[in-house]
Amino acid sequence: MNIFFQLSRTSRALLLSFSFLIAQGAFASQKIKIGLVLDKGGKDDKSFNSSAYQGAMRVKDELKSFVKYVEATDDNAFESILRSFAQKKTFDLIISIGVSQVDALKKVSLLFPKQNFAIVDGVVDSPNVRSLIFQEQEGSYLVGAIAGLTAIPDASGFIKVGFIGGMDIPLIRRFELGFAAGAEVEAKRNHHKIKVISNYVGITADSWNNPAKAKELAMSQYDSGVQVIFSAAGASNAGLFDAAEEKKKFAIGVDSNQNWVKPGRVLTSMVKRVDEAVYQTCKDVSESKFIGGTHHFGLADKGVDYTVDEFNRALLPPAVIARVEELRKEIISGKVQVPDYYKNRK
Amino acid sequence: MMEFFASGMQIFESTLRVSTPLLFAALGGLLSERAGVVNIALEGLMLAGGFGAAAVALSTHSPVAGAFGAIFCGAFFAFLYGIFVIELKADQIVAGTAFNLLAAGITPFLMKVLYDSSTSTPSLPLALRFQQAPIWASWMCLALVWAWLKFTPSGLWVRIAGEHPEALDSAGIRVKRVRWVSVILSGCLAGLGGASLSIFLASSFSRNMTAGRGFMALAALIFGKWKPIPTAVACLLFGFFDAMQIRLQGVVLWGSDPVPVQFIQILPYLVTILVLAGVVGQSRAPRSLGIPFQAK
Fold first, then answer.
1. Of A12, A63, A251, B281, which is most buried with the most CB atoms under 10 A?
2. Any idea which architecture A31-134+275-297 has in CATH?
3. In this structure, are residues A124 and A117 in contact, taking their beta carbons and an 8 Å threshold?
4. Is residue B293 part of a domain?
């Protein structure tokens, strides 16, 4: 008993001195260790997860940090991934990407109160979690306006624009509502009648990864006279771009700048600067300024935006851009109220 | 009226497109099961074929070569499956499920190795994809399978291998060989089904892109009573409900609210259940289906 006690005491002393050494090393170089848990789309979905991954890579390069990322294959994997990251106790920050991780993170963040977490797209009300929320409806309103301003009325006098969502969840409804509002208001301002057609790829997590189905939805919308489709469907967006290419119509990308995917067919992209949010949060951690709470990213701080680059500049007339810039100011100043699905829901 | 006709044509075209991968896979399943080997691995064979098609089309810049790549990958997977279920007499349901899991795991792994992407292969430009050919090819395969099983002696052997393998054996035909040929051909056809997803309906292979189509094909096979033409009709029916489902989304049928997407999207599956639960009548599997053959 006595020997055991002594042994444990020496080992404890050893451990203490070790941890002191490690802590000193960390302090000297300000290197932080980031764990990134990506959603099912994976780092190469060219959309939401890609944006998060790019942010993490910037952290790796600019803040000289160590980044470990994992891609979940299904919803049941989140909790065990988060748990195993937290159990290592070596990560300075663990970032959950995507609303489907909310429940898992709620549990895990309570179990590891000293571990810092961040989550994108969902709110976890816990002092060690920073929730990063984007005002998707504001950016969607602007690209909706672009769609409503560039589409030409068909024979029956209707402007037709379309929306394709991935999985039918409130977050994606938020995109849809903002987009439809922007398109409707701008078309009516020009005295056109307008129809907004909405489809969803599915109701399961498969929906983010089913480009064949998304393409079929897009084909059916284009066939019914739709000229511009905005799609928020993760990796399924590829199907929309294929359909736009084949039918020679227009698409609007989402989350990342997707203008380059099919140059000349992608009118613009509604970007969500997940990369920026990830980078800022990591930076706060490296400067020991991390606090929990909910952070909103909207038009005002360019957390959401639409993109103009060499791939789509020719597609957007200057008058349209001028009008959209005007709208941006009106939304920021509160003159234009964008409907928010989260608030409209009873 | 014109508009109604136009949308009818669109639904027809859409039906043909959506049912193409189903038809290929169901024909593959039919060959294997008529010869007495359960093929629950269709989903996995499709994934293997879909990946092979995208990878070969990318490196050779030819969709036709991609289709052959799909045939090869499907056949190779079916060959492995055959070793387990024909030679080693493993339980066919268990082995089939294992092959589905294997294909679902190995394709993202290969994507990671070859393209450093775990989501999808690089996207194929329009010129490297099929526009309509797979639709015609699938119906030609149907005609070939139908004629082969019905009119040729070797087609008869396949049918007997699934019903009375002992009779075939006593007539001096090697049952195992017949089953091997059927299973390999089954892999080729299911592989083409995967190819029609990755290089026809979409422009790249993405993880688990079959999304249950292999099992839909299996359901069509049972619905079609293991006969080629009724099976093809079942595939068309499922394709039709899938195409309708797309167009019914957001349509107001009664009241002021549209029918919820969740309800519309269960339509193809609801039809499957209803159909299998009785509308189809007696659907009898080949008598020796799932029983490994041991020559005496």
1. A251
2. 3-Layer(aba) Sandwich (3.40)
3. yes
4. no
Helix extents (H) in A226-305: 237-247, 274-286
Q: Give domain status of residue B28, yes or no.
A: yes
- Record the tokens describing residue B123, joined without a space: 């996207």
Cβ–Cβ under 8 Å, residues B202 and A215: yes
Each domain of chain A, given as residue ranges in start order, spans 31-134+275-297, 137-272+316-344
C-alpha triplet A328, A331, A333: angle, nearest 5°: 105
Contact A235 B206 (CB under 8 A): yes
Q: Name the residue range of residue B183's domain.
A: 2-279
Q: Per-residue pLDDT for A230 more than 50? A: yes
Q: What does the pLDDT read at residue A42?
A: 83
Q: In the structure, what pLDDT confidence band is assigned to residue A277 with cuts at 50, 70 and 90?
A: very high
Cβ of residue A234 closer than 8 Å to a chain B Cβ:
no
Indicate whether A346 pLDDT > 80: no
pLDDT averaged over every residue in chain A = 88
**Residue B290 falls inside a structural domain:** no
Kindly give, in sequence order, each residue whose CB lies less than 8 Å from that of residue A285, ignoring residues fewer than 6 positions away.
A32, A34, A92, A93, A116
Task: Tell me A203's DSSP state.
Answer: S
Q: What is the pLDDT confidence band of residue B4, given thresholds at 50, 70 and 90?
A: low
Cα–Cα separations (whole angstroms), residue B148 to B141, B155, B232: 10, 5, 16
Query: What is the rounded distance in angstroms from the CA atom of residue B231 to the CA atom of residue B118?
Result: 35
* Bridge partners (DSSP) listed for residue B175: none
Total tally of structural domains belonging to chain B: 1
Closest by CA to A164, choosing from A200, A209, A211, is: A200
Contacts of A6 (CB under 8 A, 6+ apart): none
Q: Under an 8 A CB cutoff, do A42 and B119 touch?
A: yes
The answer to whether the CB atoms of B118 and A44 lie below 8 A apart is yes
Residue B168 in tokens? 């075939």
Interface contacts (A, B; CB < 8 Å): 88
Query: How far is it, in rounded angstroms, from Cα A181 to Cα B161?
Result: 63
Backbone angles phi, psi at A293, to 5 degrees: 105, 175
| Contact yes or no for B206 and A242 at CB 8 A | no
Assess whether pLDDT exceeds 90 at residue B119: no
Give the fold, CATH level 3, of A137-272+316-344. Answer: Rossmann fold (3.40.50)
Residue A22 has pLDDT above 60, yes or no: no
Q: Give the whole-angstrom CA distance, residue A322 versus residue A324.
A: 6
Residue B230 sits in a domain whose CATH number is: 1.10.3470
In a domain, B292, yes or no: no
Residue B259: pLDDT band (50, 70, 90) is confident
Q: Specify whether the CB–CB gap between A137 and A305 falls below 8 A.
A: no
Encoded tokens for B83: 């070793």
Tens of pLDDT, residue by residue over A254-263, are 999 999 999 9
Is B123 in the A-facing interface, judged by CB distances under 8 Å? yes
The whole-model pTM stands at 0.85
Say if A271 is an interface residue toward chain B (CB within 8 Å): no
- Quick one: closest CA in A to B201, which residue? A212
A50 touches A109 (CB < 8 A): no
In the DSSP assignment, the letter for residue B120 is B
Those residues whose C-beta lies under 8 Å from the C-beta of residue A235, and which sit 6 or more positions away, are A41, A42, A45, A46, A47, A208, A209, A211, B119, B120, B206
pLDDT on residue A21? 45
